[in-house]
Amino acid sequence: MVVAIDGPAGAGKSTVAxxxxxxxxxxxxxxxxxxxxxxxxLLEEGxxxxxxxxxxxxxxxxRVLAGGRDVSEAIRTPEVSEAASRIAxxxxxxxxxxxxxxxxxxxxxxxxxxxxxxxxxxxxAEVKVYLVADxxxxxxxxxxxxxxxxxxxxxxxxxRDAQDEGREHSPLRAADDAVExxxxxxxxxxxxxxxxxxxxxxxx
Length: 204
Ligand code: CDP
What we know:
alpha/beta; 3-stranded antiparallel β-sheet; 8 strands; 16% strand; binds cytidine-5'-diphosphate
């Protein structure tokens, strides 16, 4: 079974998807880590973004390994966030990373998180959730993770949202059959409970 969790930056996707995967005994797929690792590779090596994405050898787990190197922290900097969002507008980059994601999702039970899992990567996913949250709340959460001020985060976030929603290829949007969940004011446990309830219902 595939549980697709999509939504904008800071809506709580990563925390919720990881916790839901653990509660369900499913494997967690962080598709954003692939865009980030490809972006880091591009920043370090230069050249064509699509080539860096195609040659990316990534292992996702507790740590993120790219070509065998631990890049778990290096892919979380604001520079890499911005570059990831930028290369995510490139159709060839998207195809390369979507292919890798589909190969993983072909077998087993997954909670997959991203921007286009329910719409493009796994349109047949049995459960689709679209997480949203109030922009100020999203910025507050991200700022406390990064230890920076919420105003700077809010500006970067608005730029990334606009870039993700406005791009030509696979723009950020909810799948028609996704359940929209507003996480503003909800605890992680409450959101995970709603997701596990959807999985139970989908199992019939
Ligand atoms: O954690 P956060 O929501 O800030 O970002 P992320 O999920 O790690 O993704 C980083 C960037 O990759 C996003 O801004 C998107 O532009 C892009 N992305 C995408 O286009 N499609 C996905 N399935 C996942 C990420």
